[in-house]
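Good morning C.,

I know you're traveling, so I'll keep this short. The sequence:
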Amino acid sequence: MAKIKYFYNPHSLDFEKVTTNVRSLVLRVFGFLSASIVAGAIFLIVAYNFIDSPKEKILKREIENYKLQTQLLNQKAEKMTGVLKELQDRDASIYRSVFEAEPISSSVREGGFGGVDKYRELEGYDNSNALIGLNKKMDQLNKQLYVQSKSFDELSKLASKKTEFLAAIPAIQPMSNKDLRKMASGFGYRLHPIYKTYKMHTGIDFTAPTGTPIYATGNGRVVTPDDGMSGYGNFVVIDHGFGYKTLYGHMYRTKVRPGQHVNRGQLIGYVGNTGLSSGPHLHYEVMKNGRKINPINYFFNDLSEAEYTSLRELGDRPTQSFD
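The tokens, ready to paste straight into the viewer:
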């Protein structure tokens, strides 16, 4: 049974029954609902912005963990980059120098990878820059590690041929020259004895009597000479492999034929005065990958440091060549 409510009327000085009409009731209900909705909305806004749900707390912990892992991976990538850089430096300055292999250019080691859209799926997040940067760093490391791996494969093949390689290098003088007096003209611009003009002298001249023995300076195979070498008279060209060739010019007589294999120190001919020559001598050249280089740098097997220095000084004198 509904309770009857009364209110005190000061005008009549009596208690009167409270009567509620429909309109008041509707307004009262509407006001209560409106206040409830507003209060609920305020609560939701506060809860959404300042109070984390259990799921949100878990997600935030995971995000913080991902950030920490990203930082740790960046640090590991930096350490790996440092180790790889040291390997690259050793590869270029030590390993490849030992085997006289061409260094790998920085453009190959640090070349680009992928396309402009490679990291598009990582864009649009709060930590996109960190994620994209880490992925780029790892991709760069993978590329450099691949190049370095291929380099070590190449060096491994060269190392397996070390004995053959060392035996092939033209590492002795082409004739007996214990007193170092037979070298008459070195590598460089010299006065030509016939043309009387300064021309590039692409080898070393050793003076000796006709018939003095000439020896191969490294293991190799005698090859048919190229055209345009008629000025050397009787001469021999040996292909040592590994990019090396040697030429022995103005011989009196040769003792080998094209296609024949020769060993370091083997007799290949005798000093003469054939071709464009002003006197009995041997013109000796060393070629590396088709480029003529100073042979004096390869006399390290039969010279001491003092003898090499003395021979170097003799070779640098501005003398007249013999051819």
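Safe travels,
E.
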